[in-house]
Amino acid sequence: MLQKFDERNRDLLVNINGRLVHRDAAGVSPFDSVVQGGDAVWEGLRLYRGRIFRLVEHLDRLIASAKALGFSGIPPQAYFIDELRRTLEANHMHDGVHVRLTLTRGVKITSGMDPRLNQAGPTLIVLAEHKSPVYSTAGLTLVTSSVRRFPPDCLDPKIHHNNLIQSILAKIEANLAGADDALMLDLRGFVAETNATHLFAVERGVLRTSRTVACPEGITRSAVLELCARHHIPTEVTDLSLSEFYRADEAFCTGTMGEIAAVTRIDGRQIGTGEVGPLTGRIGALFRELTASEGTVVCAAEPQR
After folding, report:
1. What is the pLDDT of residue 302?
2. pLDDT at 289
3. Spans of the chain below 70 pLDDT
4. What's the rounded Cα separation, in Å, for the pair 248 and 269?
5. Of the candidates 287, 220, 258, 283, the residue with the CA atom closest to the CA atom of residue 61
6. Strand 140-144 relative to strand 181-185: parallel, antiparallel, unpaired?
7. Distances (CA, A) of 11 to 8, 21, 26, 27, 87
């Protein structure tokens, strides 16, 4: 489904290295590493009534990814939190907001891929938008992509980097097939994830999901597994084949942008009853309870009157 423009975002202020500028005036140097080679790391965050859900975990992953890429001058968590707060306050945002946090290797002294050309330190971009969860609550359709997810010996998926061309190519295939998203396999033929989310299948009351061999360590994925442990819902983390998803009683995907979204059709095959399943509904309700009570406070829960 194509997201529609939200008029509330027409005059957004974007934060680039601490400078707040109108979205139409925002700019990144053509010498910045994100422009030169997609050399950056990123996180998607969601704001619920003044709190950002699992902010510390997201920042841990961002900083770990930057370290894995050998960035120098990586700011501490407190710096990111301060800039997030400044951006949200400047845009009068309190709830129902998605934030894309990007840290690039920074501006180069001349164009080229050599990281030694980066001598100015990283560039931080904070883009906050009014945005509801992006997926339909009625159920998603997936189509299996011909594009495979890399294993760690090709490009380590534990690095949450900006090189998203695999996902973009897979999404193009999904668009052309009339599906909502693309299901992606690893090089061994097992299910990795979609082009944007992690996948879960329900079989005989057991919630099953793939190992993170060829996909990132998802924050929402981890929250779901924690909720299952807390509420005595049996789980299994293992290699899963495509046929195991075809025969599943239920399926759903997880992610910051879409939260918990049922999957009702894969490659034209109906999954389960073709509707949102009972365990999917229960997990969704538990997740909503969690996001309503947990998170790092970064701004007021409601606008001042």
Report:
1. 85
2. 97
3. 1, 305
4. 11
5. 220
6. parallel
7. 7, 10, 11, 15, 13
Contact (CB, 8 A) for 181 and 196: yes
Q: At what angle do helices 278-293 and 219-230 cross, to 10 degrees?
A: 100
Q: How far apart are CA 128 and CA 90, in angstroms?
A: 10
- pLDDT for the residue 1: 67
Write down the pLDDT at residue 137: 85
Give the three-class secondary structure for 39.
Answer: coil
Q: Which CATH class is domain 140-292?
A: alpha beta
Report the alpha-carbon distance of residue 299 to residue 92 in Å, rounded: 9
For residues 71 and 252, give the distance between their C-alpha atoms in angstroms, rounded to a whole number: 35
Integer Cα distance of 116 and 270 in angstroms: 52
Q: Where are the domains of the chain?
A: 7-130, 140-292
CATH 3.30.470.10, applies to 7-130: yes
Of 80, 64, 17, give the one whose Cα is nearest residue 160.
64
Question: How many other CB atoms are there within 10 angstroms of residue 110's CB atom?
Answer: 7
Per-position b or e across 182-219, b if 16+ CB within 10 A of its CB: bbbbbeeebbbbbbbbbbbbbbeeebbbbebebbbebb
CA 33 – CA 117 distance, rounded (Å): 10
Q: Are 265 and 253 in contact (CB under 8 A)?
A: no
pLDDT value, residue 3: 82
- Please state, in angstroms and rounded to a whole number, the distance separating the CA atoms of residues 120 and 104: 11
Q: What confidence score (pLDDT) does residue 136 get?
A: 87
